[in-house]
Amino acid sequence: MNLANKQDEPIPDAIGDLSSLCRIAGIAAFLLLAYSLATIVQMIALGGPPATATDAFALLQHNKTLGLLRLDLPTMIVMPLYYLLFLGLFAALRRIDLAKVLLSTVLVFAGVTLLLSSPAALSVATLSERYAAATSDAARAQFLAAGEALMASDIWHGTGAILGGVLMQAGAILICCVMLRGGVFSRTTAWLGIVMHSLDLAHIVCGLVVPVAGVLLMATAGPLYPVWFFLLGRRLLRLAEKSN
Q1: Could you say which of 37, 92, 192, 221 would form a disulfide bridge with 200 (CB–CB 3.0 to 4.6 Å)?
Q2: What is this structure's pTM?
Q3: Between residues 181 and 33, which one has the greater pLDDT?
């Protein structure tokens, strides 16, 4: 499939004086590409997050680096890159449909912020250290209960994080719909983004009711992310170059 087509030709003066945002966003897209590939490898080789606080504490005490990886610390580190990516998409698409692009950007920013506010791996790691240092069963039970509470409100289970994921995916779907118009991005890039983010949105919603269906939807969407980030990153960098 030829991923570069006539739809990739930029609209004259579509970027203007915001070309630097496109360049930064292109770099962010390639960083997210690297993260996506690393996450796929990690899930296959190491497995997903621990199911309970007991498992998480044991993993952290055995191998802290491995524990932090499986508790999604890398995800929390790279999530701010979405701010940069969608600022660049705003710069590239703002003259196509300003209202929808602005709404999309606001939705994604709100979603990312909610996700970043969820308890992270470092909080669980701190409790794990205190659990290991505890000298009584009562103290260990308290730290274990606190760990369960943190894991119940993490980026996979917490109400704020789930709402953040819904907002983020909805915003991404909206901006991909704008990509279908104007010829700034290819239709391949737009449709791939619509399908991928729709699958991820369905994974979040279905996961609340039918967890197995949520896992299958996430597994389907996951391999599409590296391709989408590559297409976005390449195009954003080209737009930045051609507008100079």
Answers
A1: 221
A2: 0.85
A3: 33
With contact defined as beta carbons under 8 Å apart, do 239 and 22 qualify?
yes
The pLDDT of residue 244 is 61
The CA-based diameter of the chain, rounded to the nearest angstrom, is 70
Q: Say how far apart CA 171 and CA 177 lie, in whole Å.
A: 10
Reading the block at residue 209, the tokens are 């009711």
Residue 174's nearest CA partner among 106, 116, 88, 87 is 106
The alpha carbon of residue 230 and the mean position of all alpha carbons in its chain are separated, in whole angstroms, by: 15
Label residue 2 by pLDDT band (50, 70, 90): very low
Three-state DSSP string of the chain: CCCCCHHHCCCCCCCHHHHHHHHHHHHHHHHHHHHHHHHHHHHHHCCCCCCCHHHHHHHHHHCHHHHHHHCCHHHHHHCCHHHHHHHHHHHHHCCCCHHHHHHHHHHHHHHHHHHHCCCCHHHHHHHHHHHHHCCCHHHHHHHHHHHHHHHHCCCCCCHHHHHHHHHHHHHHHHHHHHHCCCCCCCHHHHHHHHHHHHHHHHHHHHHHHCHHHHHHHHHHHCCHHHHHHHHHHHHHHHHHHHCC
Report CA 88 to chain centroid distance, whole Å.
16
| Residue 96: predicted pLDDT | 92
Read off the amino acid at residue 55.
D
**CA distance linking residue 233 with residue 226, whole number of Å:** 10
Instruction: Please name the residue that has the structure tokens 């990886």.
Output: 69
Question: Nearest-CA neighbor of 35 among 203, 237, 228?
Answer: 228
